[in-house]
């Protein structure tokens, strides 16, 4: 492969174009074929017996191209890219994004790498910012709620001789049968289940209600039509249940014994004070972080200059991915979340994009501060930290470094140090609400 051109389509953005000849693509494609041929099953041939021409006739002539392109890019581009960056004196602040421009059997392929470069910002101010750290008061209601959570966590399961009702904790063995035969994933022993939790498929928990510990019985239920296991979706099944026991959660009394056991103090008054301080410390930490963020926001506002659009876009995409992951963990769609906060998708994404622009400007300003104030970690410091990690994991330094992006680690540490420096040279006024 070779480097074709280096361009700056906009300020603080570098675009490199690379190309590979038809011969290079063919050689790499043949290497991919040799490496993967055993995995192909082609009609009329035993698995792994079809040759390259037969596989391409069945799957298309491009079958091995894209793995071949990746192999060539991984092998040749890093060295070409690094040499070009050094030759032009460019300083990347993000990983390059790659795009395949064209690929033809008789011409080879062309690809580009687009990289955000460090912008030159005019820093009107880097010290002397001011913000307030306002810590809200802790209410008795909040203390009561925390004590109830501690109480619930300390609850003990006590056997119950009566019939099971919602809220009870039961331990069960069960076996699911579809058309009289056990199905995968339908059998378990000594499973703990809180009745009414909705953890099991509809009808399962209701079928246990009214039964006593030691009973064995059957439950007839139907899997939801959209159940993830397609072979069970919408199917009626029978669960054989052995109800091992029925338990109730017995909450401890809020007295001195509880204070001694959970809070390690002698009285409930002392325990309440302990909880009050814990809640206050948490609120203060959050308020202090907000005050620090305000200082960094002021730094961003004082940093004038054009940011590389690809870096802002990369930050925006990362923020959106984080939001989507958080919503998935809560089993909530973005549309449902937007309906709850009464925002349109357009307004929401515009706000996220504005935040990405502000965060990017702050990070680039901090990187510039780090360079101006000699806060960028040296190679020796980075190696020392990585050597400590290597020692902990019983690996060599080279093994640890092989799986890491050293320039990114260096940038992130420089930005962290600069943030501490700016905050130390600013004023945070602490107040209680």
From TrEMBL:
It is found in: Cytoplasm. Pfam families: FKBP_C (PF00254), Trigger_C (PF05698), Trigger_N (PF05697). SUPFAM superfamilies: FKBP-like, Triger factor/SurA peptide-binding domain-like, Trigger factor ribosome-binding domain. It comes from the Bacteria. Residues 167-247 form the PPIase FKBP-type domain. Keywords: Cell cycle, Cell division, Chaperone, Cytoplasm, Isomerase, Rotamase. This is Trigger factor. It comes from Faecalibacterium prausnitzii.
């Amino acid at each position: 492969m070779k480097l074709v051109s280096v361009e700056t389509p906009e300020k603080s953005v570098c675009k490199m174009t690379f190309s590979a000849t038809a011969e290079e693509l063919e050689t790499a494609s043949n290497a991919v074929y040799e490496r993967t041929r055993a995995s192909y099953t082609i009609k009329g041939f035993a698995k792994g017996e079809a040759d390259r021409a037969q596989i391409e006739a069945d799957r298309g002539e491009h079958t091995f191209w894209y793995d071949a392109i990746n192999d060539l890019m991984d092998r040749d581009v890093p060295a070409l890219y690094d040499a070009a960056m050094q030759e032009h004196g460019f300083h990347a602040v993000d990983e390059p994004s790659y795009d395949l421009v064209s690929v033809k059997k008789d011409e080879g392929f062309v690809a580009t790498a687009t990289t955000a470069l460090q912008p030159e910002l005019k820093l009107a101010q880097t010290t002397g910012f001011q913000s307030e750290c306002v810590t809200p008061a802790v209410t008795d209601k909040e203390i009561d709620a925390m004590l109830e959570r501690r109480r619930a966590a300390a609850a003990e399961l006590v056997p119950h001789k009566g019939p099971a009702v919602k809220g009870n904790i039961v331990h069960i063995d069960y076996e699911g049968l579809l058309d009289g035969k056990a199905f995968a994933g339908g059998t378990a022993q000594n499973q703990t289940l809180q009745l009414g939790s909705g953890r099991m498929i509809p009808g399962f928990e209701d079928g246990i209600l009214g039964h006593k510990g030691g009973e064995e019985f059957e439950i007839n239920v139907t899997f939801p039509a959209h159940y993830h296991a397609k072979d069970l979706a919408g199917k009626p099944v029978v669960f054989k249940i052995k109800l091992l026991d029925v338990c109730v959660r017995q909450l401890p009394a809020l007295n001195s014994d509880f204070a001694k056991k959970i809070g390690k103090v002698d009285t409930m008054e002392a325990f309440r004070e302990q909880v009050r301080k814990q809640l206050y410390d948490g609120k203060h930490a959050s308020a202090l972080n907000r005050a620090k963020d305000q200082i960094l926001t002021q730094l961003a506002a004082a940093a004038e200059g054009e940011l590389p659009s690809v870096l802002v876009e990369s930050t925006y995409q990362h923020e959106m991915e984080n939001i989507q992951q958080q919503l998935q963990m809560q089993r909530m769609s973005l549309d449902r979340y937007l309906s709850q906060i009464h925002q349109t998708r357009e307004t929401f994404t515009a706000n996220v994009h504005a935040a990405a622009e502000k965060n990017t400007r702050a990070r680039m300003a901090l990187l510039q501060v780090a360079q101006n104030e000699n806060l960028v970690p040296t190679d020796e410091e980075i190696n020392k930290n990585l050597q400590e990690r290597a020692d902990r994991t019983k690996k060599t330094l080279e093994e640890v470094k092989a799986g890491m992006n050293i320039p990114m680690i260096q940038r992130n540490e420089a930005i962290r140090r600069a943030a501490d420096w700016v905050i130390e040279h600013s004023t945070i006024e602490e107040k209680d609400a």
